[in-house]
Structures
1.
Amino acid sequence: MNTLSAFTMWAQKNRWIWAAIGVLLLWLVLSVVTNRFSLSSLSGIILSASFLTVVGIGQMFVVTTGRGNIDLSVASVITLSAFVALLTIKGQDANLAIGVVAAVLLGLAVGLLNSLLVVGLGIPAIIATLATGYVLATATLLSNKAIPGFAVSPALKDLATGRISGVPIMAIIAISGVAATSFVLRYTVFGQLLSAVGQNRAAARLAAINNGRVIAAAFIISSVLASLDGLLLGAYIGGAFLEMGQPYLLQSIAAVVLGGTLIFGGSATALGTLLASILLILIVTTMQIIGLPPGAQDIVQGIVVIFVLALAGRQALTRRTTAEPADGATPKTQAKAAASLPE
Amino acid sequence: MSHLAVADQKSAVAMAPAMSLRQEIVALSQITKSFGPTLANAEIDLAVSAGEIIGLVGGNGAGKSTLMRILCGAMWPTLGSISFAGQTIGFVTYDTAEAQRRGIRMVHQELSLCTNLSVAENFFLETPADAASRPGWRRLYRTRARSALDAVFPGNGIDVDADVGHLSIAERQMVEIARAAATPGVRLIVLDEPTSSLDLDRSKQLRAFIRERAKAGLAFIFISHKLKEIIDIATQVVVLRNGRTSWRGDVADTSIDRLVQLMGGDANPVHQHGAAVAGAGDAVVRLSGALTSELGRDVEIARGEIVGLAGLEGSGQKDLLHAIFKPGKDGPVTRTGEAGFIAGDRQKEGVFPLWSVLGNISIGSLARRPSLGLVSDRLNRTAAGDAAGRLRLDESRFGSNILELSGGNQQKALVARALVADTPIILLDDPTRGVDIATKQDFYRLCNDIARSGRTLVWHTTEDAELLACDRVLVFAGGRIVKELSGEAITEAAVVGASFVHQVDKRADTTHRTAGAAGLARRLVNAAPFIGLAAVLAVMITANPAVASIFGLDLLLMPALSLVMVTAAQMFIVGGSEIDLGVGAFAGLVSVLSATLLYDQPWLGALALLAAVAVYAGLGGLIQARKIPAIVVTLGASFIWVGLGYALQPTPGGASPEWLTALFGWSLDFLPTSIILIAAVALVVLTIDRLPLGVVLRGFGNNPTAMIRSGWSPTRYALMRYLIAGLFAAAAGLSLTAINTASDINSGSSFTLLSVAAVVMGGCSLLGGVVSPVGAIAGAVTLSLIGALLGTLNVSSDYNAATQGLILIALLTLRGLTADRGSEQ
């Protein structure tokens, strides 16, 4: 009992643990049920999960700014970036630098546009990134007509698909990214400011924090990561196609929420996003192994997201309700407390 | 028989003193409420009889709000019972709706009106039983509102058809009080700080009204920090302290001094500021321009000074604090040196709820450091420890979550935050609000110390007594400084005198002057969807006159019909301040269902359609019940809809049932079918929106707390909202099948985002509560014509999406620029 409650306390602060448990359980079940699962198949899963992790980390920054902020443009950025890579690199290693610069510039431009709309003009993030997505969709259609062919630079291909002593290079990139992000969130001023802005914007402003700059930084990080991810993903699949980024929209949000980052903002966990990405890919892989049709895979993914949110939603609820004795709670939390009564 | 009568007599005699005058309405007994380790209420008894006016006093955190929430059914106690007229009832069945049925009404401090609804509609929310779903149902509530307002506040001049959002705070307070008082069957009214925003005359009117109604048997609980009012109005006084009843008795047996003592402080808690250092230091803040025009000279605030801002609430004191915090270019305020801010509204502007006390303190020093600088817990702890020591804040609590602290200690942490920020100017926004007396005294001492150490304090307070601690006081009226008091001249009488004498109505004319131009611009933006639609049609008809024929218009507008219906669905969701990212996919699924199952096996198909709509509505209930973000849930649901569609029909195909095709395929000679159908959809949406149901849905979009307090069930109406949306989306799906005479699961996907765009274009607020059905539908038609328009102009259809996106951005930008300031937040 005591260890259980101690664990619950600990798990409340380390919400990534649930994703970790999920990965372990599913992995165990798969290993026992099928004999095909081995360490090498795990590395394949981690490779796929790495692409998701990179865009998920970006999404996590945006979600953490609070107020239900979500970057809906990541899918379009991934697709467009893959096309831009084909246009700039043209399959030549010599052009690789130009390609990387182009990808970063694309990310910066989209991120700046998003933050201009959200911070500068005060348009809600969902609508702003939705509109940006529309504009990028047209850009993608135009570049689709302009691409010379589907040649991919060999060096980039090596980076996206290669392994170092069995470990995918992509996984190393993703894991180092996660480590760096964890450090930034926990030990830098920016990480603290981000959390502050996500928790209480008015209080952050009065603590002399420049909210706009912090939020803009989150959107730029998200777009740049999505753009780099698109570059690598294009190299991995050996080209680009319309809608190739689409699955990453829901999955990136799912990875963030599943990993334990609060959807209401203010608290992020990069490790959780990594683990949740692996879990999501594991689920998809499992369904492929079982031989479920693509439709069923969609259904299962949707159910997982809703289910996890329904569980996580209650956690946030109890946290806010216990917060109430402090006088003069805001109307919203009061509403929540009142609404939770009949349960 | 006989001994029964005797027993009756006996008990009648025993109860006579109570019964003769007063009949007990409600009694709480032994109420205990714990939040984790803290006891908000401990063994409190409170009985209210007819005709009583109970003055309830106590410092904030004394447990008044908790007790009142329990009384009104908004919260259950941990222990204790409640009885009505001597009959105990279980708390399990006691909620806000039940409290209202039993005649208990509460007027909350932070007003419970829906600002997007009219005064009359707000009256409807409180007593919905008398409304009928037919035209003219508002008339009853208009009359009721009019007579209720006039009964309490004669000569109020409030328009009952005006949106509450357009009323002043005092007028809203009056509406809220009148609404509670006018409720049929009301027996007890709880007034929480009812006079906080009323001027003296209105406050007198209110008290006269209370006295008169109490004579007629209505009971009141009057909560106020203004003890003079309590002594004036109450018949009984209940004093709470630390969650317990510290005294209850007749008002004649007490006095202001005695009450203050009972609440836990001495009557004159404010210490005069020590040796005045005023005038010694250099000026750090300079106020000029319109702000000081009444004084006729600039005001300079020097180093080491404590300057108080006084006046009636909302006369411009807060605005000045914010102007000093962030001086505008060429504004009336200039400052040298950084300014720190200590907020009094801790929940909204102060604490970071996820963090520990330490985190809440040390953030103060972070904002001014480079973003990639490193944070060290050890250094933070040392810096915070210093500040906490001066504040008598226990360092062992640094690790606790900030919300586990009492209000007073939270405020200390916020002061510590300002101290570690180490700014030469510190702005205080009513920091002692809801803080216990002991902490207040620590606080006054600290302010003195801070000022002596050479820092400047600018202090806005709503407790006039606190101004005695200041070196100088600036008295505000109507947004300007009307009087400057210093030293001995600072007395409560002088402050009150100055703030009332200079009651000028300057604000009213400044707002009127700007309203003209901005109003025109706003109207233009609101008309944008119609202007846009007219322009698009004009261009197309000029390019190809055949478009103007009935056949041409049908060809063009029929495909818009499905989007129009999806937009109607989305509009109801947006009205609840949510967004549905799965609505297009849902329409696609319905289309697939109708072209496969419904075609092959009509009964099974109909059943499947019903089930789909039910699941869709259930999703809304889930979102509400679990408080989870609709965007993500509906995005997840969109995968489910698409997945189901694929599973049913892997490739496009199927066929439309004949009756369905006929439903959309008829034609009249003189009007295009598409226009009639679109107009019909608009009419249905408009009707729902104007019915009581629509008013309730808009109310939830604007102020769910108020709706819950009025006894409305949020989950039921979330279900209702999604059910309506689901029906419109399903109709859209059916229309897709009928128009395409086949189905494709992806046929609805593009509608999701377009519908959001159309709703926003149409003028609905994403914050919820503001819907404009006709605008949204015009927006939907315009957006669906973009493709055809580009075709007419010989532009590649690749630009379709970008054009739609840019239109959306442009409209939102325009709307953002013309909207009232503040309404966007």
2.
Amino acid sequence: MGEITVHALKNVDFELFEGEMTVLLGASGSGKSTLLNIIGGLDVASSGDVIYRDQNLHEFSDRALTDYRRAHVGFVFQFYNLISSLTAKENVALVTDIASDPMSPIEALALVGLEDRVNHFPSQLSGGEQQRVAIARAIAKRPSILLCDEPTGALDAETGKLVLSVLDQVNCQTQTTTAIITHNASIGALGDVVVRMSSGEIAERIENTSRANVDDIEW
Amino acid sequence: MSALNMKLLRELWKLKGQVASIALVVAAGIMSIVTMRGSYESLVTAQQQFYRESRFADVWVSLVRAPEGLRVNLESIEGIDAVDTRVTFFATLDLDDSGIPAQGRFISLPEIGRPVLNDIMLRQGRYIAVGAIDEVIVSENFARARNYLPGDSIRVVINGRSRDLDIVGIAISAEHTYAVPPGALYPEDERYGIFWASRETLGPAFNMDGAFNEAFVTLTPDANIDAVIESIDALLRPYGGLGAYPRRDQPSHLILQAELDQNRVTGAIIPIIFLGVAVFLLYLVLGRLISTQRGEIAVLKAFGYSDWEVGGHFLLFAVVAVLLGGLIGLVGGIQLGDAYIEMYAQYFNLPNLEYLPSAGLLFFAFISCALGAFGGAIAAVRRAVLLPPAEAMRPEAPARFEPGIIEKLGVGKLLGATGRMVLRNVTRKPVQGFFSSLGIALSVAILTVGFFMFDSVNHMMDLQFRHIQREDLALTFREILPETVRYDLANLQGVSRVETYRIVPARLRFGHREDEVVIQGMELNAELRRIINADNREVPVPATGIVLSAVLADRLMVSSGDELIVEMLEGKRKIAKLLVSGVIEDFLGVSAYMNKQALWQLSGEANVISGAFLAVDALSLDDIHRQLKQIPAVTGVASPATMLQSFEEQLAQGILIAAGFLLGFACIIAVGVIYNGARISLSERGRELASLRVMGFHRSEVAWLLLGEQGTITLLAIPLGWLIGYSLSYAIATGLQTDIYRIPFVAEPRTYLLSAVLIVLAAIASGWVVRRRLDRIDLVEVLKTRE
């Protein structure tokens, strides 16, 4: 069998603006995760440029990418990815320990409404609570950019909404540039900008005049 | 090939590192059995065959001189099957190539026919011709060390007369499988040889025409050996009998037997260690494999595969590891056994000594290791088999953590997040952590025990040659000489100090217990030869009474202040009471010391000596050797310095070989435990580690987290290993105590340090391999999938 080159992304020209919340919509295989990984410095595009505040990530070494993630990027994953041997507070502290100007872990957990659960281990928390700890962990270092990959994907509607309202609130309060990946079109209403992706290309870019309230969206 | 077997093959390939490390542990276990037990069996077989073929005697007795006619009286003692007699003497060898003194033990062979007992085995050349009085057969080790071949001749000083003897043959004998010169501890093949000559040659030379000075017998199957010895002693007392002794006290047999016993003990302990580790590793690795494959197990069961088929599938991993390990172990064990026996052949001169492991042994080694390994595997596979399909479908519940006791004590606060993760991961599975630590501890222990053996031997040699034997030369006289000889010796050019000694064989009796010893009469305020106890402290020679080795005192069940009955076995054979004035802890020999004057009084022979110790000027050493060769009465000249040198040369070689094996074995265990532990942590916590990388942790930071756990386990293992090593060494030191020596229980700090450092290096190497794997983790892939 010969090698076949498959382009996960092509002709992508795309900007994230400070303080805005962007929702990336697309079916699975549309390339939205690849895009997010490239923005987050987890993956490198085979060609093209990724400019972050005048620096080209495309030219970064592996170590520089790690430093970039360490200083500027917050990640929230579909499966939370908390460290099971650390409590909620310690999971957050894991990031604040290596950040230059973090908030305190308690402050971050208070922002997501978990000030009463700080000493619980992941196995003692519900899925929604675990995802909120993950959000607190991601925002505690005051990242320039918060990337959320299907943050509600493993949650039921009720809990998913709670998590989204936390993200919404964090974005408004901290003015952190936020990108949320989802295949759930109704979540698009929450963003300042909605980018629809299909077959590795940007199919559509919509700027919402006003952001919807989490309680108003249909799941 | 069935789909299930295809899965097996692919997963085996994925886990090849782990399968290989388990196979190596299994191989080491089998290898240790095949090598150690196999050589033990080969040695025993060779020993027994040699004893049988040479008609090895059961009881020996030396005496001053008895007429050949007495042989009939010996034959008539009840319980004796066969009797043989001979003439035997020590003589100086005149080897003009070096100044080093050399000595020969001359043993007579019958004029016609072969010895009835203790026959020799010719390796080269021929037997002595009838009537030939200048022919001699020499021992193989001596001939090899000196490059003698049949046809060469050798100059010997017999009874003061220099004679050239023709070497016609080269032989070995069961009495000298381990040939140690008198007064030495170790074979010195360059300087000590056995010489067999016709009785017609030796008899007249030593005034032993028609007489003998050594006899030995074999016993009938129903004989009472104590009664036989008693009868022999009674018969030979008028002829200067020095006390009959059984085979177990025969010097060469004693050492060979001690070596065999040691082999048997270590051959049993070491395989058990490997077996334990193999069981644990298979349990660990298969257990992990099964918990990552819960989903697959559920699907297999849901599709209708039976518990047996599922269990069998996972057991096949163990089968592959065991078969692979078995093959390596059997082949490697046979190779190593060959090398091991070859090494033995350098020390013990046994004919037909060949490494021949029995089929039964190979089968036993394989089966015992396989059963052990399967035991571990079955315990792990049981979990897969018992898992109900519906439950197996669900992902395993997330690991539960809580702050452990250590953290509750406040240690946690001192640690960063990384430290806490390491600590909690170690304490979450205390049993697994303990066994991992135990495994590594055992490899530390193997090294500690190995190095301990060398420390002990070194200590013993240091004590013997630097503290006890401080003379430059030790002279042995052919017969007792007057004390005034000391002035002649002192007059030799270059001699700076002379101390004389008297030794008398004697029987010590306390209650119904008795023992034969050689009482050493030492000078008061001696400087060259002193009594030194195990703590390196000098024990002054008492003016009266006797000082005994602790081993001897134990056997007689006497202590300081008790009164012994002493029966002199030489000269006037006086019997007297004697006070035990001290017991000393020493390592070598079963010693009994007295003041020389007190011994003269006890034996009734005043002012006679058996030999002398000299301190000499190093520059005159060669000259003194030349002069001593001219003195017929001096039959032995021993030099502690050359003895030590020859010993240290052989020891250094032995250390390298043994340390290499021990290190190899210890590393197999340490790497097996650490590598598998780290691999399992990596598979259990890959997602966590990948998350950390995504959050901006550098590779090295994440590696610390993963390897910190193995590091902690290794560090905990080291003191545990020292403790086990210390206890095992103690057990070995006590267990190997024989009638002739005790092993000092000393371990230098270096031993502990070295064993720890080597294991830490093995740990770092295993960690490095796993770290490379960690570096290759696909972050995106790991985060996307649900465990």
3.
Amino acid sequence: MAETQTVQRTPLYDAHVSMGGRMVDFAGWDLPICFTSINEEHAHTRTACSVFDVSHMGRLTLTGKDCQSFLNRLCTRNLDQAEVGRSYYSHICREDGGILDDVIVSRFEKRWGIVCNASNREKIVAWIDKQSRGMDVSLKDQTTSTAMIAMQGPKTLELANAITGKDLSSLKRYRCTEYTYLIMKVSVYRCGYTGEDGFEVVVPASAIKMMLPKLFGSKGSPNPLIKPAGLGARDTLRIEAAMPLYGHELSEDWDSLTAGQSWCVDLEKDFVGADAMRKVRDEGLPRQLVGLELDGRRIARQHYRVFAGGKEVGEVTSGTLSPTLGKSIAMAFIKSDVAEVGTTLEVEMGSKRTGATVVKLPFYKRPKSS
Amino acid sequence: MSIPTDRKYCETHEWFAGAEDTITMGISQFAADELTDITYVELPEIGKVVSVGDVVGEVESVKATSEIFSAVDGEIIEVNENLAGHPELINDDAFDKGWIAKIKVSSTASLESLMDAEQYKTFMAGAH
């Protein structure tokens, strides 16, 4: 982790700086933490449409006739029936169940796409290389030759329709497609990491700049419904939506079931890590991922210890002051016998302990109908 | 960024203003901007006696928690109660409405070694 390497810039770097982005080093990439304020960008995403630069995330393309059987063995999710035009959230694990990464696997007509975390990209490329030996699978890392943006928020669909002149409403959640826009190839995914409706769009790196006026409007008359947002809001949004983050809820040190993500695991099929996870299932989970609502305004941060009746029962994985709820919220791994909704616990913050109540996840769910 | 010239600055980004026996302290706008949205301020108790280098309180943001330190010996005589309900006052106006505490001192000698506005500006340029 502490290797010294130069910080990389995404194709949107100059645009971030010119829009007033406060740049920070994130997983080796120079990215904006915010443009105005995290709270403002958070609220804008929940009410209109925010654009996030997610070009740091790994974009891998797989081709070859063995792709489907290979990916079905590599991923925790069942991809045996994977259809063209669909995206699947999955984990990639080691034999011992340790989570190497969480990814979105998408099936296009002539290829498969994997979007992985920036911090895990090299590891995943090497893992795919090793696991696919002897199979007809070839991998191309397209991370630096493309740019990726996420448009998120309840106004995204109508704005995206207006910008593209297409009706994107037929592209349902977790569907993906390819368009030719002007002369370039564009991949569009109806997913995101904010708990809102939205799209993630991949374009050639050289083309993203000419798309920006289309997105934000011209300098003189910016579209007030679309604003840039940074990594700060991305984190508070995903915590409210209880979406896991690698390095927090997910780690090589535990498996997908222990991470509370059994919904993306199919133990009926064979995959790398399946045996280890079946054992975990049979022995019973010692802990659970829960939501906590804390008293007061202080933020519970990763590794803060959680107590029940004076006994240590677990630790916080992520926390923030929820901009939507105005409350201090956290996710935590705690012992199963104190994980029931409504249980009163305490979180250690410095020298003091603060009261906390187990609540249902997610903390925020977008209103239906949109 | 305009840096008020009527006060002194620490390398840990606190400011101290006032020449007589009452010193007002806060954190700089640079520090507030770096922390991003401030969500909570742990204020000291009135009557608390502090020495140079003591922790006076904590400023917490979405991004991080950071302690604030005293650069004077003295007694806390007033705290900015508005910060309890509106910690964002520090983001909005770190040098004025976002002040944190007032300290009664017998001497301001310890402030002499701190940075003035010009020096702090140079220091920030290096810190960024």
4.
Amino acid sequence: MTPRIISKKTHRSQFAVYDERGRKIKLAKRGKKLSRSVAGTVALFLFIGIFAVFMGMPMVLTISNALKPLDELFYFPPRFFVRNPTFSNFSDLFMSLQQTWVPFARYLLNSFIITGFGTVGHLIFASAAAYPLAKNKFPGSRILMSIVILSLMFSPVVTGIPNFLIITQLRMVDTYWALILPAFSASLGLYLMKQFMEQVPDSLIESARIDGCSEFSIWWNIVMPNVKPAWLTLIILQFQALWATTGGVFLQSEELKPLTFAMNQVALGGIARAGEGAAVMFITMMVPVTFFVISQSRIVETMATSGMKE
Amino acid sequence: MNKERNIFQKIFLPRPANHRRNTTGSLMKKNWQSYLLLAPYFMLFFTFTVLPVVMAMGLSFTHFNMLQAPQWVGWNNYIRLFLENETFMIALQNTLIIAVVAGPISYVLCFTFAWIINEMPPKIRALMTVVFYAPSISGNVFFVWMWFFSGDRHGLVNGWLLNLGLSEYPINFFRDTRYILPLLLVVQVWLSLGVAFLAFIAGLQTVDKAMYEAGAMDGISNRWQELWHITLPSMRPQLMFGAVMQITASFAVGDISMTLAGFPSVAYAGETIVTHMNDFGWIRFEMGYASAIAVVLFAMMIGTNKAVQHLLRRVGS
């Protein structure tokens, strides 16, 4: 089998090695170490190609359906790709949303309030707590962190019922707070933020401390500007969760429901609304995906520190 | 200046004024600002995460319908759950099947994809990351699977089958007990390339390149050896984190079943612990009983996570 170098990155890493007297040492097996069998490469790329189609097909269908006129949606035999793309589904959806009892703008505002406050609050609260956990040692810091890690190990569905009881007791049912406050304390955000903050050099913090900065101002003026990639990660994780929420049992008044709820209601209107339903799915999907496309590199940077030591 | 004091000095001489003993109390006082920063988050965290777990455990020993005060019933809920509730056994079985099949598959796929993508040029890598990650952040878009497996002839799969003459009538996929669970597995795997996948991509980019150089000199000759002896061991922290994410998600399957297979699903073929809990909690308002179900799920998630972490410590050794 021919040894082959695949990526440029590995190619570039062919640095020279010198011995004590400064002579270049020839590495005989240079090529061999990066050996990538062609068969293996083909097999792997084929594998990922097949799965990329599997993963991507539903997304492509969502886009394609949103652009299909109603007759194409119910064409037999069904077509995967749209033939005569049209934006009529979107204009229909907009028309339907105009006719709802609660004005469309109100749904949009509700969504903005819930996702906006929920996301920003989570970012601030979680990073404020992450800084001392990452950088200071004090009684209880370890145990708090292990509780947070433990909470990553079960899903919030477990706590759904008691949570409802607590929110009822706090008289927050049917207010935005019922969705916003629990979102502030999501544990994944705190965990990722804490891991990322550990990278901030101690010397930076130490010198600020010598200059007489309070812990609060170290967090806000020194640590926070240094962990901007992690901001985006927390924002997208929280944003997509809150964007997808319909309010569930927590919001009962129609005028407090978010846009996702209104759009789902429109989409439930049966066959006549199938086109609008496709448009709804397209919008629901595109908002977080666009967000991710824009912030991808920062998010991946944060995830590099996500590892668990225990 | 903290010079080491000998035993004599310790006993008989007064402590120098600048010497502070690190008692818990003094450390707490010294770090009061840290506690202040922690307070807002952890107040909410305890209210909405820790307290609910404790409450669920407490409520699981009661009969509680939200109208009357909870009544202590001891282990009754658990006894009913495991001995008298056949539907729960179906739910338990389905949840375990999903967790055992979809969990490891999605975990391995997360890693494999990240590993292959990592060798691609940056632009293609970014594109592939979006393709694989998008389903998990798109909210309710898994409903699109309904367009594929819709029970009438307008569903794509039925359309193709009918058109090719492979089937004489449309198959009602999400209403047929033979297809519900396998389809849910497919959808769950499709949805599950989430945070763990990103963590792996990021982790692979941080593996020290010098390790590969060194490995080559030690006689590693192909990519599979490189994967096992270098890449996997140096990614152990990310592997742990990814495992936690995937296990938790694979036990929490419920929404996709309720949306796609219906609630309740035909002959409970799509019933999972989560849907079962929703049934008793939000529809029958048997909060005590539903809490017992939640506690069982909680125990399963934590137990599996701990066990898998134990296993993962041995990766590459």
